[in-house]
Each structure stands twice: as structure tokens, then as C-alpha cells.
Specification:
By secondary structure, the chain is of the alpha/beta class. It folds into two domains: 281 residues, 2-Layer Sandwich (Aconitase, domain 3), CATH 3.30.499; 170 residues, Aconitase, domain 3 (2-Layer Sandwich), CATH 3.30.499.10. 33% of the residues lie in helices and 17% in strands. It is built from 16 helices and 19 strands. It has a five-stranded parallel β-sheet with strand order 5-4-3-6-7, sandwiched between helices. Helix 13 crosses helix 15 and helix 13 packs parallel to helix 16. The radius of gyration is 21 Å and the shape is globular.
Length: 471
């Protein structure tokens, strides 16, 4: 009898070309996403070594990290260094045209991890790599994906392969329905707070259980996006009918007979009953409330209704010291409610939470209200397609009427690019994924939260529970 296998093992086994020394496998890379920041370096290195891509038809390109999100004359608004990188990137793509390139002016342009799912570039059972750690995002469709370094970008371009050691396997089972005002971002912040920023190190994580199945694809993408934030380079959700419905008709998904063949294969991918995992974690989503980070790591998160933790009662010396440093940086006092903490900036965007459902959740909080005096609030759609869909629903007008800036697609304030920064000492509520010291600007203080919680903070001018009707 064949052994029971996990989703990870099934895809991994199908892609092994050879097993090398030390238990490292040489894997085939089915699709490769390149973008301006690391793509420029990859194509430069390719030229320096007088190499050419193994198969440019498996390469897809976009611009996102270095481009301005100003809506007018984005090229001119991009920084000098950003324009230099765009030039190098475009020259490489001109020498070796990819299957598709979503440049400025293309309505499909957007953040790499938003574009890949919505265009059907990421698919169940495929290996998809990119030079960014949040490539794990697209595992939400059942792909096998992780981020690589810039030198590996050139290697993949040259060989269409990657050397990788098979990770251990971890399953996160989510039970119970989410309550009103609680979202996928709240699940993953609560998870990281529980198991720590290194809780998944050395493991590929599969999110499973009825709580995950109840999520739409965009919520699943949010979970997998932040797998890297608890140490796992790979996050996955097994494909199901929700996945197939989402992918049907996507531009780069299979069509006609190839769709039927793909569908038959995809249905064999979910982990077999009895498949062994090296670690199991369970989370009851029904008891969760909106979450917000209080420190400088996603693991330093808590319910919005809670009190700022006291480091002195933490038994682990390393965590105690980290908490003390984080509180000094964030300017918070142990034992005080985090709700009511005033904010200066709100950012709704990033590869974590810039999709249509994210903007809809934020707009539902914002509609008919105004942002608090003195607050700067930005909404940055994840792609041109997201922006067009949001505008067709009137979401942009809801945000603008409330006082938000409605920007063009890109990474923006998540990486403090092109002047989209939080000033020293200012406090931001952000839907992005990282909040280490200086992430959104030198001295910036960042609280991670869901789009609904971020939107509520913009209206109240302070961290508040988005379920409050008076937010």
C-alpha cells in the first residue's frame, strides 16, 4: 500500500530532477516571477556571465517595489535610484522577453504576489519562485512557492532549477467560524503571537481545517503570506472547489481540455488521510477578536481589547529583553490599554492585504465617515485589476470622501519607497506584514492589523476595535 503523503510531498516528489549530496534536491521551477528590485540584479548578473534564460516562456515580470504609487506621471515620481533599477530591469527583459511583462501603464501591473494569483500564473501543484520572501503567499492556491535571493534569481533564469533541501512539515489546523469584524489577518497575528516568530523555522506549513476552508482565496493568501513571519519559507492551503472556481478563466490558467486535465490532477493533491506531519498546531478561530501588534515583531501581537504586556512577568529572558526594547521603541507603557493609542498614519495595502476583499472590508468601516484630524491615510490597491474592480464598486469614492489618498498599485509604504514613509516618532497602523524598527521609515512606529482595524484607526485617530459602531 502506498504511504500517505502530504500536499508538500506530492508536489515536491513530482519536481525532483536529481538528489544531490547532503540530501539536497534539484527541483524544476515551473514558473518564475521577476520584478524590478531583485529582477534588475538577476538580469544584470545574467549579462555579466554571458548567459541567457533557459526558458523565457516560464518567466513573468512586473514592476512594484521601486515604482511610485502617485497616480500621475509615475515614472517621473519614482526616485532616481528606482528609475535606475527600472532601466536595468527593462534592458534585461528587452534582451530576453518574458512570457508577459506588466510595466507601468499596463492595467495588469501590480505587486508580484497579487498579480501571480489573479492572472492565473500561480496554480495548484506548480513550483513558483520569486526573489522576495513573501512568495510563500501563492501557496494559498496550493502551489509550492518560496522566496529566493538575488543570486538565485539568476540561477533560476539560467537553468530553470533550484537546489533545495526538503523541509519538515507543519500543519496549522484552524477550527471554528470567524466572528464579525475578525479576518484572516487576525488569525495569523494570533497564531504568530502564540508560537513565536521562529515557531515554523525549518518547516513548510499547511493551513488546514474548517476555519481555513471557510476563507475565500484572498484570505488564504493572507495566511500564507505571513508564514515567513513565523519562520516558515513555505505556506500552503490544499486546493478545493473554492480554488478551482477562483482560477477558472484566469488569463494564464489552463483552458478547455487542458483545464479538465489540470483539474483532475489538482484533485489528487490534498494531503492524504493519515499523512504524517512533524508538528501540529490548532487554533480556535471562533474565540478570536481583532488583533494588533504592540511591538516590533508580528509575534508581539495582542487583542485590540487587551492591555500592553508587562515584560517583567515574562519568564524567558530573551523574550523579556526583546519586549522591553520594543516597548521603548514603540513608546508604550505596560499594563495600559492599547486601544485609544493615538495614530498619525494609516496604510492599507501591501502583498498581505491589498486585494479587493481587503478594500471592501476597510470601505465598510469607512463609509459615510471622515478620517480624524491630523491623520494621513493611504489606500494602495495591489494591482491595476484590483483598482479597476474597486473603482467599479465605488470604493475609491468612499475612501476619497473620507479623506484617504487613493494611490496607484505598488509596494509603497510597506517598504518606505518613494517618499511613502512614516516620519520619525510617528505611529502608523499598517496592513503590511513587517514592523521591525525603521521598516516604514527611520524611527517609525508600526502596528500591524487587518484592513478593518486599520480603517477604524484612521476614523478614530487611535487604535480601536473595528466592531465599534462609533469608531
Amino acid at each position: 500500500m502506498a504511504r500517505a503523503r502530504t500536499l508538500l510531498d506530492k508536489i515536491w516528489d513530482e519536481h525532483v530532477i536529481a538528489t544531490l549530496d547532503g540530501g539536497v534536491d534539484l527541483l524544476h521551477v515551473d514558473r518564475h516571477m521577476v520584478f524590478d528590485l531583485t529582477g534588475a540584479i538577476g538580469y544584470r548578473d545574467l549579462a555579466d556571465k554571458s548567459r541567457k534564460p533557459r526558458n523565457s516562456d516560464l518567466v513573468f515580470a512586473t514592476v512594484d517595489h521601486v515604482v511610485s504609487t502617485e497616480r500621475e506621471d509615475r515614472e517621473a515620481a519614482t526616485s532616481t535610484e528606482g528609475r535606475r533599477m527600472l532601466k536595468v530591469f527593462r534592458e534585461g527583459l528587452a534582451r530576453h522577453p518574458p512570457r508577459a511583462f506588466f510595466d507601468l501603464g499596463d492595467p495588469r501591473q501590480g505587486i508580484v504576489h497579487v498579480v501571480a494569483p489573479e492572472q492565473g500564473i500561480a496554480l495548484p501543484g506548480l513550483t513558483l519562485l520569486a526573489g522576495d520572501s513573501h512568495t510563500c503567499t501563492v501557496g494559498g492556491l496550493g502551489a509550492l512557492s518560496w522566496g529566493v535571493g538575488s543570486s538565485e534569481v539568476e540561477h533560476i533564469l539560467s537553468t530553470q532549477t533550484i537546489r533545495q533541501k526538503r523541509p519538515k512539515k507543519m500543519r496549522v489546523r484552524v477550527d471554528g467560524p470567524l466572528g464579525p469584524g475578525v479576518h484572516a489577518k487576525d488569525i495569523v497575528l494570533a497564531l504568530i503571537a502564540r508560537i513565536g516568530a521562529a515557531g515554523g523555522t525549518g518547516h513548510a506549513v499547511e493551513f488546514a481545517g474548517p476555519g481555513v476552508r471557510a476563507l475565500g482565496i484572498e484570505g488564504r493568501l493572507t495566511l500564507c503570506n505571513m508564514a515567513i513571519e513565523f519562520g516558515s519559507r513555505i505556506g500552503q492551503v490544499a486546493p478545493d472547489d473554492t480554488t478551482y472556481h477562483y482560477l477558472a478563466g484566469r488569463p494564464f490558467a489552463p483552458k478547455d481540455e487542458m483545464w479538465e486535465r489540470a483539474l483532475r490532477h489538482w484533485k489528487t493533491l490534498p494531503s492524504d488521510e493519515g499523512a504524517a506531519f512533524d508538528r501540529d498546531v490548532s487554533l480556535d478561530a471562533s474565540i478570536l477578536s481583532p488583533q494588533v501588534s504592540w511591538g516590533t515583531s508580528p509575534e508581539q501581537s495582542m487583542p485590540v481589547a487587551g492591555l500592553v504586556p508587562d515584560p517583567n512577568v515574562m519568564p524567558d529572558p530573551a523574550r523579556r529583553e526583546a519586549a522591553m526594547r520594543a516597548l521603548r521603541y514603540m513608546g508604550l507603557t505596560p499594563g495600559e490599554p492599547i486601544a485609544g493609542t493615538s495614530v498619525d498614519v494609516v496604510f492599507i495595502g501591501s502583498c498581505t492585504n491589498s486585494r479587493l476583499s481587503d478594500l471592501e472590508a476597510a470601505a465598510a468601516v469607512v463609509k459615510g465617515r471622515k478620517i480624524a484630524r491630523g491623520v494621513r491615510a493611504l489606500v494602495v490597491p495591489g494591482s491595476g485589476r484590483v483598482a479597476a474592480a474597486a473603482e467599479a464598486r465605488g470604493l475609491d469614492r468612499i475612501f476619497r470622501d473620507a479623506g484617504f489618498e487613493w494611490r496607484a498599485p505598488g509596494c509603497s509604504m510597506c517598504v518606505a519607497a518613494n517618499g511613502d514613509i512614516v516620519a520619525p516618532g510617528q505611529r502608523a497602523v499598517s496592513t503590511s506584514n513587517r514592523n521591525f524598527e525603521g521598516r516604514q521609515g527611520p524611527g517609525a512606529r508600526t502596528h500591524l492589523a487587518s484592513p478593518a482595524t486599520a480603517a477604524a484607526a484612521a476614523i478614530a485617530g487611535a487604535i480601536v476595535d473595528p466592531r465599534r459602531t462609533d469608531a
